[in-house]
Amino acid sequence: MRKILLKNAKVVDDKGIRKSDLLIEGEKIAAEEKRGFFKEEESKGEFKVIDLEGKYIFPGIIDAHTHYLLYSRGTVTADDFYQGSVAAAAGGVTTVIDYIDFPGDGNFKRSVAERKEEARDSIIDYNFHQVVQDFNKKISQNLADLKELGLASIKLFTTYKDVGYMIERDQWSELFKRLKELKILPQVHAEDDSLIQDLKEVYSKRNLIAPEFHPAIRPGIAEALAVKDMGGEALKADMPLYIVHLSSAEGLEAVRELRSRKAQIYAETTPHYLLLDNSYLKREEAQFYFMTPPLRNKYDNQKLWQGLSTGEFQVVATDHCAFSRAQKMQSDSSLEILPGIPGTETMLPLLYSSGVRNNRITIRELVEMISVNPAKIFGLYPEKGSLELGTDADLTIFDPNLEKKLTAENLHSAAGYSPYNDFTVKGYPVMTFRRGKLIFDDKLRAEKGSGKFIFSHNSSLL
């Protein structure tokens, strides 16, 4: 069984920052000791030694919100599970949590099995959230299967009623009761559908449907209304609620209000809502900055950073949804452009460069939001998101001084473009270990299909 000694790095996890040497044996973390502890064994050549002077060791990064091989609007994303996982590994990500489309007949055993088959080529480990778009006696009964299948959460929508995603308001109460009974965490894409439909009609009549009008058609107040509505339901049920990709100052204020009423609200945001703004939607290639919810203004960026700095967000994820250049440019109408951008590979360097280097967050807080917390919230901890002895040796080696320009040519998504083309970051992952194996450094070193499904237990919130 191979042994690897990682020496002279600074180790960062939820316990703090320390100067330690880490020993990997096979797929697991075998030991963590003070620098020099293994000097005798090292001199005898008992293990491979990697000197990481000047670098950090993080527990493997987890992107808790991805859409690889997503079928949408008659097409499929450019990044399947293989290419998406290659990009992830290049960005220091060792695990993703993707989504499973709702099976119309409520057969979750089949939907999970089919999605596992679609993910078989991944080079990193993975778990899933199950989308739920309806609720009846059969679905209520079948939700219990998700726990047995190793899923900890479901995703709900308060918008997209026109394409069948939205679960009807009168079903929420019974659904939340059932989720509480089963200890399954509800996530929600929160935007008020009725307001959006009204605004869509108004703007469409005036032919104001260019990308720059997308934020007006789906405004921050629509997010806030849905957060309050769904959060109130969770409060009544005495259940935690996880808000995905919170994008606006209004949405964050709604979260604060609910928390003041003792609601258990947990929030995720993304790098693009922190770093990009709606001025990008006026560019010639505005389609490359088009996602839902839409980009907001610089004030929202500032308010979200403040929320991140004061611990109001538990997780940062990416909502990675990478269509190709050609797919994105098929339309210039905000009602038809395929929504979504690539993001998994750039999450860690963007957050470090713009967050830690600018003293908005500490390096420990960064690791908690993109590794420790997602592992705990989605039932993967301590096997993932920790440096505990005996757990999976998922490790991200990070060089705080390495500079890189985030152009498409420097990245690995099949999208063929980078929404962060204007950004040069300082601080970048240089090695990614998945279960003790180096899978990416200056090049890809993992075999196709070497990632695996990781069974999830109860969320730490339940």
Helix content: 25-40%
- Rg, alpha carbons: 22 Å
- Uncertain runs with pLDDT below 50, 5 residues or more? none
Number of helices: 14
CATH top level of one domain is: Alpha Beta
Mean pLDDT: 97
- Remind me, CATH topology of one domain? TIM Barrel
Q: How would you describe the shape?
A: globular
Cofactor: Zn(2+)
InterPro entries: Amidohydro-rel, Hydantoinase/dihydroPyrase, Metal-dep_hydrolase_composite, Metal_Hydrolase, Metallo-dep_Hydrolases_sf
Family: Belongs to the metallo-dependent hydrolases superfamily. Hydantoinase/dihydropyrimidinase family.
GO molecular function, one term: hydrolase activity, acting on carbon-nitrogen (but not peptide) bonds, in cyclic amides
Please outline the helices and strands.
Blueprint: E1 3-13, E2 16-25, E3 28-34, H1 39-43, E4 48-51, E5 56-59, E6 61-63, E7 71-72, E8 75-76, H2 81-90, E9 93-100, H3 108-118, E10 125-131, H4 137-148, E11 153-157, H5 172-182, E12 185-189, H6 193-205, H7 214-217, H8 220-237, E13 241-243, H9 249-260, E14 265-269, H10 271-275, H11 298-309, E15 315-316, H12 325-328, H13 347-356, H14 363-377, E16 395-405, E17 424-434, E18 437-440
Parallel strand pairs: 1-4, 1-5, 6-9, 9-10, 10-11, 11-12, 12-13, 13-14, 14-15
Antiparallel strand pairs: 1-2, 2-3, 5-16, 7-8, 16-17, 17-18
Helix pairs in contact: 4-5, 5-8, 8-9
GO molecular function, one term: hydrolase activity, acting on carbon-nitrogen (but not peptide) bonds, in cyclic amides
Modified residues (N6-carboxylysine): 155
GO cellular component, one term: cytosol
